[in-house]
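Quick one: structure for this chain?
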Amino acid sequence: MTTLNETSPATPITPRYFAVVPAAGVGKRMAADRPKQYLPLLGRALIEHTLERLCAFSPIDKVVVALAPEDPYQAGVKALNHPRVMRCAGGAERCHSVSRALEALTGVAAEHDWVLVHDLARPCVRAEDLQRLLDQLQGHPVGGLLGVPVRDTMKRTAANGQVVATVERSQLWHAYTPQMFRYGLLRDALSATLARGELVTDEAAAIEAAGLQPLMVEGAADNIKVTRPEDLALAEFYIARQAAGES
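Got it. Here's what it folds into:
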């Protein structure tokens, strides 16, 4: 029989999951009249598709979207009014926006909770890939990211464009998102890189700079990033294929 003076085994704390979407950029390579997140994709703004997929994934408690402070287009995005969506002001670069979104989770997320940072320009992310990320990183001490192994021959060039080497591709990956790390770990790692004046292009780089090794988790190749005008048509194609149940 257990008495009041006996210590009971600690009950494991189940972590929660939060998503962060940096959406304060303008997407200059799209050469459009508005930021690319608001360009039409199958009759709706691109950002609607991305947020819809994250909000439909039940393990995610909240989705924090970092928007430009004077963004005039956000009022027309219905997905931003979803009850699980939080908004915050973004920054000049992706890393600043992610850092501000993490600050917005202060008092909401616990240190051990997981944060999935996802590119707003990846509207084709599959629910099964999100689940695979959660499953494979569940007991990982650091975290990791979705990616796809490099299949093309890789070349390294000099500044003038001349090829100087063929790069061994067997251990090279295309880094995708979401990238998933513990809230406290990611917040501290990103804060440290910004304090050094470093601008990292993804969250894994901040974790690597802290001396840690994220895990690559292979995902679907159709989780493309809309960067150039022709990518919109490709995203439409992939979304239509997914809706039809094609792999």
